[in-house]
Each structure stands twice: as structure tokens, then as C-alpha cells.
Amino acid sequence: MPPKKNPLGLNPLQLKTLTLLQAMAKLDDYSQPGETEGERTIIALPHAHGDHFHLGDATVHASDATGLNNQAVWTVLERKGLARTNFPQSATITAEGLAYDTGMADEILHHHAHH
Predict the structure, then answer these.
(1) Sorting pLDDT into bands at 50, 70 and 90, what band is 115?
(2) How far apart, in whole angstroms, are the C-alpha atoms of residue 97 and residue 36?
(3) Residues 6+ apart with CB under 8 A from 16
(4) Which of 51, 57, 76, 107 has the greatest count of CB atoms below 10 A from its CB?
């Protein structure tokens, strides 16, 4: 039996926010190792220029990132054990948060081929 999709019942905004935090956790410009093995601490949040911003080689629509500035979203991620937060300065994504399959990466992280 395949694992249940979204077993913690996160809403779309929470899923998008966790997806972005996971993407930032993969980039040294935005994160560093956390205090506990398997965690990453987000040390910088991206700033939109116009209607988008860049995370590594991905482009993200600013409208998909509103949860990064929403304390209620961070609180839910913390309550569900996916992050420890110090809104809005930083968040540490737990190993569980990094491993959580949001199913949103292909939807909000747009990768464009450069020729």
C-alpha cells in the first residue's frame, strides 16, 4: 500500500511554504546545517523582483510564496514537527520536514532550459 499523500493534512499554502523551505535548505546561500543531524536552518529568505524570485536554477512566482511572510503558516509547520521557527528571522527545517513529500515542487519551482 503506497504511503498516504499529505498525511499531516497541510493546506495548499502550508504545502507551498514547506516546498520553498525545502528548496532553500538545498542552497548554501539560503541555509546552513542545523543544530541536529539532518536539519537545515534557513538563514535568508528570497526577495521578489517584480512578480517572481529565483531559488538556485528555479523561478518562483511571488504569489506562491505568500506563506513565507505568514506567521500562522510557520506556526502550523512547527506544531506538526516539520520546523522550529523564529518568525520571521529564521526557521530550522527538521529531518521530517525535509523528507515530507509536499507534491508541490514541480508545480511551484519552475525550471527553464537555457540555450
Answers:
(1) very low
(2) 13
(3) 64, 65, 67, 102, 104, 108
(4) 76
Q: pTM for the whole thing?
A: 0.93
The H or E element spanning position 110 is: strand 110-111
- Please, is 67 exposed, middle or buried when counting C-beta atoms within 10 Å of its C-beta (0-12, 13-18, 19+)? buried
- In 39-93, DSSP assigns E strands to 40-42, 52-55, 58-61, 83-86, 90-93
Report pLDDT digits (tens) over 72-98.
Answer: 999 999 999 999 999 888 899 999 999
Assess contact for 51 and 70: CB atoms under 8 A: no
Which pLDDT value is given to residue 1?
65
Q: With contact defined as beta carbons under 8 Å apart, do 12 and 76 qualify?
A: no
Residue tagged 507534491 (cell numbers): 103
Q: Are 32 and 43 contacting, i.e. CB atoms less than 8 angstroms apart? A: yes
| Per-residue pLDDT reduced to its tens digit, 49-75 | 899 999 999 999 999 999 999 999 999
